[in-house]
Amino acid sequence: MEDIRLNVSLLRRRVPNLTTAARSVGLRPATVSNLCTGKIPVGRAEVRTLVALADLAECSLDELLIRGEKIEMIETGIKTLDVFAPLAKGGTVGLVARPGMGQLVVLAELFHRLRNNDFATVLLLPEGDHPEVNDILDEVQIQVRTIKEAYEEIAKLGKTKEVAFAADRSHVITGEIPTLQEKLHSIGVDSVTTILVDLKGDVVDEDVPFGPLETLWQFDADLTARHQFPAVNPVYSTSSVLEGAHLDQTHFTIQQRAKKLLRRYRELRSLVTVHGLEKLPETEVQTYKRGERLEAYLTQPFYVAEAFTGKKGETISLQDTLQDIRKILDGSTDSNEVSELAYIGKLH
After folding, report:
1. Are strands 120-124 and 163-168 parallel, antiparallel or unpaired?
2. CATH number for the domain including 123?
3. Looking at residue 70, what is its pLDDT?
4. Which residue ranges does the record assign to the ATP synthase A/B type C-terminal domain (predicted)?
């Protein structure tokens, strides 16, 4: 079952309100979400879960399960995203964040980088008063106000270019985004990568806030409070690109080692805050300090923030990032100050 995954795009088109639908047939929404993003491999799913999903989507198991099809990632040059929750090309990514955690900065940076890689960027403007959106408009090539306009523009662009399309969650709740994706699919336009944000911050408290997703970026209040940006949690963010059958073994191994270190480091942070570093055993001190260095390394200067931070934006290839993380895990940077690893590109 290693080369089998859920047909997420079919689920998205057929079952847009996955939370309600899953509960109605006795499924845990979080389990379904984890199956969609690949956090739980399909091979570990109960047969009754897969049968129930197929019934919800009104399709056969053969239609629900895709065999041997590699998911292509979009390499963004953003360290945390590329290593821990890669952007699935042609898929849908949901950003789970409260206001003030930097989700719009990440969206602007993503648009900036994708435009430089010959993507067209399209933004469906949110309804209501959201002045914060004005800060990202410089990176948007096409602004639309309705789903109808979005369809017309993307239908034209999608024949010749890759498209990055962003919208607020309010358009998911109304069913407009799944309908748009269905219509584009029906005319053969599958070159659209959709980015969903939540300007109100309600998604933090929901199990499946956007419906089926290929990629989930979970923002973190603690990282935000300590100015560790981008404040995307590398432990809880995930992507269907990370399924074993689709991921380079070196990437998978380093990513798993890094997650293990960061999980333990976060546990130790709580202890250190209360009791101080001197109360930790020596082996745990080493774990804590390496976790601290890795967390610092995963911060990154953004091009769209240069005017505010005074730091030049940095793009780091996935291979360079993996090499650097391996060095941190293996102790090659143990003599470096944490500050030397913060807001840099690659290690020197």
Report:
1. parallel
2. 3.40.50.300
3. 73
4. 246-310
Report the C-alpha gap between 131 and 149 in whole angstroms. Answer: 21
Q: Pick from 36, 67, 98: which residue ends a domain? A: 67
Q: Tokens 């993380």, residue?
A: 325
Which pLDDT value is given to residue 76?
98
* Per-residue CA distances from 150 to 84, 177, 180, 213, 329 (Å): 30, 10, 8, 20, 45
Q: Grade residue 326 by pLDDT with cuts at 50, 70 and 90.
A: very high
- Write out pLDDT tens, residues 72-124: 899 999 999 999 999 999 999 999 999 999 999 999 999 999 999 999 999 99
Q: Does a structural domain hold residue 347?
A: no
* Predicted pLDDT at 210: 84
Lowest mean pLDDT among 170-174, 183-187, 251-255, 310-314: 170-174
Residue 60's domain is classified under what CATH number? 1.10.260.40
Residue 322 is assigned to a structural domain of this protein: yes
Tell whether 96 and 188 lie within a shared domain.
yes
Tell whether 309 and 239 lie within a shared domain: no
Q: Are residues 238 and 273 in the same domain?
A: no
Closest CA to 124 of 163, 82, 69: 163
Are the C-beta atoms of 215 and 240 separated by less than 8 Å?
A: yes
| H or E stretch at 55 | helix 47-56
Mean pLDDT of all residues in the chain? 92
**To which H or E segment does residue 93 belong?**
strand 92-96
208 Cβ contact partners less than 8 Å away, ≥ 6 residues apart: 18, 19, 22, 29, 30, 32, 33
State pTM to two decimals: 0.90
Domain count, the chain: 3
Q: Which positions ≥6 away from 225 have C-beta within 8 Å?
A: none
List own/partner pairs for 19-26 with CB under 8 A and 24 or more apart: 19/206, 19/207, 19/208, 19/209, 19/211, 21/56, 22/56, 22/208, 25/52, 25/55, 25/56, 26/52
Q: Which domain holds residue 310?
A: 249-341
Phi, psi of 96 (to 5 degrees): -105, 110
- Within 13 Å of residue 267, how many CA atoms lie on the same side as its CB? 9
